[in-house]
Amino acid sequence: MQEIRRYVSDNKQRFLEELFELLRFPSVSADPKYKADMLKTAQYVADKLKTAGADTVEICPTAGYPIVFGEKIIDRSLPTVLVYGHYDVQPPDPIELWHTPPFEPTIRDEKIYARGSCDDKGQFYMHVKAFELMMKINSLPCNVKFMIEGEEEVGSSNLGIFVSQNKERLKADVVLISDTSMIGLENPSLETGLRGLSYVEVEVTGPDRDLHSGVYGGAVGNPATILAKLIASMHDENNHITIPGFYDDVLELSEQERDMLNRAPYNESEYKVDLKVDELWGEKGYTTLERTGTRPTLEVNGIWGGYIGEGAKTVLPSKAYAKISMRLVPNQQSDKITKLFKDHFESIAPKSVKVKVTPHHGGEPVVTPTDSIAFKAAQKAIFESFGKEPIPTRGGGSIPIVALFEKELGIKTVLMGFGLDSDNLHSPNEKFDLANFYKGIETIPLFFRYFAELSK
Ligand code: BES
Ligand code: MN
Ligand code: MN
Question: Which CATH architecture has domain 196-250+296-363?
Answer without folding.
Answer: 2-Layer Sandwich (3.30)
